[in-house]
Amino acid sequence: MAFVSHSQRDPNGMYTFSSRPRAVENRSKYREPPQEQSHINYGNIMYDRRVVRGNTYAQRIIPTTTQPDPAEIQRQQELRRRAIARKQAREQFKPKTPEALQGRKHIDVQTELYLEELSTVIVATDTECQTDAFLDRPATPLFIPAKTGKDVATQIEEGELFDFDREVQPVLEVLVGKTMEQALLEVMEEEELACLRAQQRAFEELRSAEMAEVQRLQEQERRHREEKERRIAQQKEALKREKEITEKIAARAYTQQYFADLLPSVFTSLRSHGYFYDPVEKDIETNFFPWLMDEVHNSLEKRYTARELLDTIIDDVTQKRLESFKDPEPQPQETDK
């Protein structure tokens, strides 16, 4: 809360208020044009999170006074250096703006922290001038935005807000106490961590021995199980073979008994149907008789051919004799036949 006041000095050197204090209006985070507000919001300091209320001894002290770990600081510095080197390499390999095409040109844009609206177009012209050699460019003046809002002031007498010598003592007591307590806690934590590591090491050793024993027992149990399964399989195989042999013997005996009376009748029926024959007789019927018939047929064919030839000769002679008898010419003298 701020108090708006207009003070003036009396001839005696005392300050007096000419108006009553009043709360300052809340101001928006962004610049907005002034407008009429029907409702005025006042800020209450009792609801501000930045204000500490109550006893300061009960406040939570953020452990910022503890010394950071040197390894963590070195690691953070190394990460920061790597990030900077990575950023520099990325900027080095970052593609630059290419040259403008023919008939075009590059223009500057606003990249400052505070942007200004360009309502009027300013005609820019290029001029040249001769400067001195190695003349440094003057520093760019810092841009300071125009001041907005109302000025307020508060009259505070000396010693009204804070007495350092009197109020710093409990703060120092709290800081020192918290530091000592934190140091003791860290020492106790280190001792407890050392005890936990020792217990964990002993537990790991015991667990490793137990795991080795468990693995040995599991391997022994696996070997016993495999041996048992192999013995059972062998016994089952032996029983199976014995059963098969018994079934074969029984089937053979039954077959012999069944075929004792069947075989003579079957052989008799097969012999009567010609399935059992004499080899010599079969050979004569299948080989000799066909050959003999072929030879007889060939002989008959030759005889028939000879007979046809002889008939043809006789017919020719007869025709010639007949023609000779019909011929009126004197007959030649007969020769002895």
TrEMBL record:
The keyword Cytoplasm applies. Residues 22-34 have a biased composition (Basic and acidic residues). Keywords: Cell projection, Cilium, Coiled coil, Cytoplasm, Cytoskeleton, Flagellum, Phosphoprotein. It is found in: Cytoplasm, Cytoskeleton, Flagellum axoneme. Residues 207-245 form a coiled coil. InterPro entries: Radial_spoke_3. The keyword Hydrolase does not apply. It holds the Pfam family Radial_spoke_3. Residues 1-37 are annotated as: Disordered. One of its GO terms (cellular component) is cilium. Belongs to the flagellar radial spoke RSP3 family. This is Radial spoke head 3. It comes from Sphaeramia orbicularis.
